[in-house]
Design brief:
InterPro entries: DctQ (IPR055348), TRAP_DctQ (IPR007387). This protein has helices at about 5-20, 30-60, 70-90, 105-140, 160-190. The chain is an all-alpha fold and about 190 residues long. The protein has one domain (about 5-190). The longest helix is centred in the middle third of the chain and has 34 residues, at about 105-140. The relative contact order is 0.14.
């Protein structure tokens, strides 16, 4: 077993036994930054839960519901779910079918990791391209002026435009993270 595979197993074991994880070493500085940013989105989910509790109290106890609670919680949770893909990528904790992967040699695994990272970067690039088109329709009016798409409710917050912009930015960051992973996986095997 290579040093890389042993290191990976030790990190996975530590994460499992302590209940915490860490970004994959191959994720580099960007992975560490994404990992730290995760706390913001975790706080957003807690805030969404508190907002919903407050809304239940206001609606059913005081008979005075808000017009913004539902849209705010949807936005906060949606943002966290979008960010979750980038977060899982930097931690190398995404779902992986290991039926074949576990039977590969360490060199073949490294090659597979590089190939998978490149394919994922390409797929993320296609999603970023699609998200770009969503953003242009959500941010610009047909006349070309900036007009953020809103929910159309009584509060009419611009959360649809904001979430589409966030998806676009996240997909670009995913492309970058996958390319960093591919480069570092390829570089880790140069001593073989």
């Amino acid at each position: 077993m290579s040093d890389h595979a042993r290191t990976r197993e030790l990190i996975d074991l530590a994460a499992t036994s302590e209940g915490i994880g860490a970004p994959a070493p191959e994720a580099g500085l960007m992975g560490r930054m994404v990992d730290k940013t995760g706390y913001i989105f975790a706080a957003g989910i807690v805030a969404a839960a508190l907002i919903l509790l407050m809304e239940v109290f206001l609606r059913y106890v005081l008979n005075s519901p808000t017009i913004w609670a539902h849209e705010t919680t949807v936005f906060l949770c949606g943002s966290a779910f979008v960010f979750g893909g980038l977060y899982c990528t930097c931690r190398d904790s995404h779902i992986r079918v290991v039926l074949i992967y576990d039977h590969l040699s360490s060199r073949a695994r490294r090659i597979a990791d590089v190939a998978i990272s490149v394919v994922c970067a390409l797929a993320s690039g296609f999603f970023a391209y699609a998200a770009y088109h969503m953003v242009t329709r959500a941010v610009f009016a047909p006349s070309g002026e900036i007009r953020l798409e809103t929910t159309g409710s009584a509060w009419s917050a611009p959360t649809p435009a904001l979430i589409k912009i966030f998806i676009f930015i996240t997909m670009i960051l995913l492309v970058l993270q996958f390319l960093i992973l591919a480069f570092n996986y390829a570089r880790s095997g140069q001593g073989d």
